[in-house]
Amino acid sequence: MIFFEHLFKWFRRKFGFAKVAPTEAAVPVPEPTPVVEVSKQPGLSCPECGTRIPISFDNLLRQVPVVCQGCQLVLHVDPQQSKGALSALQKLQDGLAAAGKTG
Q1: What is the reported pTM?
Q2: Which of 51, 68, 79, 96 could form a disulfide with 73 if both were Cys (CB 3.0 to 4.6 A apart)?
Q3: In whole angstroms, how far apart are CA 75 and each of 29, 43, 72, 88?
Q4: Using an 8 Å Cβ cutoff, are 68 and 46 in contact?
Q5: Average model confidence (pLDDT) for the chain?
Q6: What are the tens digits of pLDDT across the range 57-95?
């Protein structure tokens, strides 16, 4: 390593500059971890007033409209846009039901 340092200094003195490839690859900066709210009661915050709206898995799967108790905003599940999420939720509910039967 010392040999290369001397070579580098000689090259700089002789030519006034040196291009050296970085010895270590740039380490990417990790994205910050998003804050996740954990609750025993599934639900969401109203996009209008921020009131907590409790929602059951069953009501989501049956696509029952959700009404905010704070501002009376009515939210509907879009079955086309939510197809993947509803499928995953159904698998989760089936798994929870199966786990409840075994224990």
Answers
A1: 0.51
A2: 68
A3: 38, 12, 9, 20
A4: yes
A5: 78
A6: 888 899 999 999 999 999 998 989 989 988 998 998 898
Look-up of token digits 């999420």: 85
How far is residue 85's CA from residue 63's CA, in Å, rounded to a whole number?
12
95 HSE (CA, 13 A, CB side): 6
Alpha carbon separation from 27 to 22, 32, 34, 85, 103 (Å, rounded): 12, 15, 21, 34, 47
Q: What is the DSSP letter of 63?
A: T
Residues 43, 70: contact at Cβ < 8 Å? Answer: no
Query: Residue 52: what are its φ and ψ, rounded to 5°?
Result: -70, 125
End-to-end CA distance of the chain: 63
